[in-house]
Every structure is written in structure tokens, then in C-alpha cells.
Amino acid sequence: MTATTAQLLVIGAGPCGLSAALAARALGINVLLLEAEPEDRERPGSRALYVHRENLERLERISPGLGVAIGSFGIRWRAASTFYGGREVYRQEYPDFTGDGLPVYASLRQIDTERFLLDACKSADVGFVWSAAVSRVNSTADGVTVECADGRSFSAHYVIGADGAQSGVRRALGIAMDGPRSTDYRVAVDLADDDSGAAPPERIMHYRHPAMSGQNLLIVPFTGGIQVDVQCASPPMSERLADPSAVREWLPKVVDPGYLDRILWISRYPCLQRVAESFIDEHRRVLLAGEAAHLFVPLGARGMNSGIADAYAAAAAVGLALSAANPRRRAAAIEEYQSLRRQAAERNRSSVDSALRHLRAASGVQRAQQAAAARLARLAPSLGAWLDTAPYGPRGPVTAELGRY
Domain FAD-binding: where (predicted)? Predict the structure, then answer.
């Protein structure tokens, strides 16, 4: 079948792929986006919840009004509290956000973030090809040809592979993933609000929840509901806790029983810390981004946020390469993307590892430290603050140039 041609092919219509396509269009690049699923696909579950201001700013730059729209739709927590063994050891309250600009973050379901991004892409004249599962990628020094399972073929100067954890682009290029696959799993249950507005949104962290046999769990509000995320020590435990009948047994022990009638979605996922061995192909024509390039458990909101940062950087690299005067400069632009974003991924992996080790508390010393901090938190508030922040890993920018993610 004759190939359809574009300057840039973006593979994957998740937040990373949509952001990459939108960023490329902002640079005047002709973009065609291929998605394996049909246009009317269902995207269940909240998935990633948190969009940091750093990324709201990026989205605002590439599509004026988009960052503000997402920030206005998402919610901010009115309070954050941490409990140990059922006793509160830390609490921080926050004022309402009343500014006209961008909030520090927005908490909303990924499907809502994708809805905003998709509408912006359509307004920016991004071309879409749905039901286009990638089966082969052939890159050369002059460009890339992508073949789909149904026989369709597409060619471009560059490709951004943002097609998720099971990336067909990454597999077609033979790029391996490096890093451990932890035995830890998590079970996430999405619950809809009752629309009464009675309770302000509050993020709650539980260490050693007494009603959950000492398991840790996190409750995170988003626009329209909350997510309850339970830490599991093994795959069999996660399978048991994710069973719908089991959820109906343990859920009323940790949230209002009224939520039993408002269960939206139940999921389980492994705690991964994997990074692609390379973010680019040998010919410097294909760039991997988002979960095609790295897989992190979403502690510290590093999943989607790092993917959007990848997308922004990948589009900028393609823009530089397309305008470069010679092949050496074209290749250098793509290699710079590889250098910077893989550095960010390694930093994020290290932060996630720190968070997982803290939550796992596998040694007696770690457990004793956490228990002591909980006992002394009222006398030394900094100990309560440590228990509150440690589950998300070290904070702060990867580098001044790369930002937080």
C-alpha cells in the first residue's frame, strides 16, 4: 500500500503522544498521529491524576488557554494528612486557589486530561489515523517508514514513539528495557463523589492501616471522586484485594460506606522502575517518549508528568533537526534529546526507588525509624512532615535545565 507522508509521525494518542503532536504543531511541523485503538475507545479508570504546574505551563505555551483550562477543571487539595496505625501524625491545610493564572497542580482523571489535549490537537490541525497498530518500523539516514498490522504504511522525516508500556515502536526497533520489576503491586479503586460537596478534597496517607492488616494506603481526590490506592507486598495479595467481592469487604473500612455504590473502576499494577536502554534509534530518526521510554510506579506523579516533559523536548528536538543545515546538526539535536531525557528518567527512577524502599520498610531498622517518627511527631513536627513526604521520593528539579520531571 502506498505510504502516506508527513514531516513527523507521532505514535500513540495518550497524554504523551497528544502533547508531542500539539508541541510539534506549535512549531509549524506537519504532524500525523497514529493510534492503535479506535477513535471511540473507552479509557477506564483515573490512571494518572496529577498535572504539575511545570507541565501546565508547557501546555499553555504550546496551546494558549490549554494549561488554564486543565488547571481550572482539576481540583487542589484543601488538606493533606498522614496517619500511622490509625493516629494522625501530620496535617497541612491549604487555602483555596483564587488566582487567574496557573495553579501549583491540578488533580483530575487522565481521561479528562486526554479530552482537553485531544480537543486542542484537533483545533491545531493534527491529523489522526485510528485503529493503526504499528507492526514494523524501518528507519534509515533519510527518514522512517512505519507499517501497520492492517497493511497501511506511513513515512516521515521523524517519528516520536509514545505508544505506552507495550510500545510497538520500541519492540520494532529492538530496544530493550533495563531495570528491576519489583514484587510489589498496588491496587487502585476509583470512586465517584455523591455531588453533595459536603467534604472538602483531602489527600490522606495511611501507614500500617489497622483495618487493612497493617497495609499502607493512599487516598487521593480528583475532580468528581477519589482514588484509594493500597500497597500490596506480593502479586497474590494484589489479586485478592482487587477481586470485586473483596473490594466490597475492605473498602467500607477505609472510606465512607456510601462509596460502595459509586465504584468506578478497580485496577492492579506492578511497581516498575524500568528505563529503555536508548531513547533514540541508530539513525537518529525515531525518539521514544513517555512509557515507551520508561516505566515508573506513579509515586510523586512521575509517570504522566515525565511523559509530557519528554513530549515537549522531543517535539523541540525534531523542530531543531528539521531546520538544521547539515546532517551532523540534525543528528546532534536528536542526541541532545536522548542525553537530557534519559538523564531525567534515571533521576526519576532513583527517586521512585527511594520511595518504594521507604514504603516497603523491609528492615527492622526502617520500621523502627518510622514508628519512632510517628510517636514523636507531635513533639517534633518535622518528623511528621518526613513521614508525609517520604512516600513520594526526593523532590526538587532533576536539573535546572530539565525541571522537576
Answer: 7-347
Please write the tens of the pLDDT for every residue from 76-109.
999 999 999 999 999 999 988 766 789 999 999 9
Instruction: Look at the chain and report how many structural domains it folds into.
Output: 1
User: Are 185 and 238 a contacting pair, CB within 8 Å?
Assistant: yes
How far is the first Cα of the chain from the last one, in angstroms, to the nearest whole number?
40
Q: What is the pLDDT of residues 217-259, one digit of tens each?
A: 999 999 999 999 999 988 999 999 999 999 999 999 999 999 9
Q: Which of 89, 96, 57 is nearest to 75 (CA)?
A: 96
pLDDT confidence of 213, banded at 50, 70, 90?
A: very high
Residue type, 102: L
CB-based contacts of 212, cutoff 8 Å, min separation 6: 206, 230, 250, 253, 254
Q: Is residue 155 part of a domain?
A: yes
CA–chain centroid gap for 235, Å, is: 22
> Are the beta carbons of 371 and 84 closer than 8 angstroms?
yes
The pTM is what?
0.93
Q: How far apart are CA 176 and CA 116, in angstroms?
A: 32
% helix / strand / coil in the chain, to the nearest 5?
Answer: 40, 30, 35
Contact of 5 with 144, CB cutoff 8 Å? no
Q: Which three cell numbers stand for residue 395?
A: 523532590
Is there a domain that residue 131 lies in?
Answer: yes
Residue 351: CATH number of its domain: 3.50.50.60
Residue 81 belongs to some domain of the structure = no
The string of pLDDT tens digits covering residues 281-305 is 999 999 999 999 999 887 888 889 9
**What domain range includes position 111?**
4-74+99-179+274-355
Element (H or E) spanning 25, and its range?
Answer: helix 15-26
CA distance 306 to 222: 20
Cα dihedral 208→213→215→218 (10° resolution):
-80
With 0-12 / 13-18 / 19 or more C-beta atoms within 10 angstroms meaning exposed / middle / buried, residue 66 is buried
For the record, the C-alpha cell of 92 comes out as 497541612
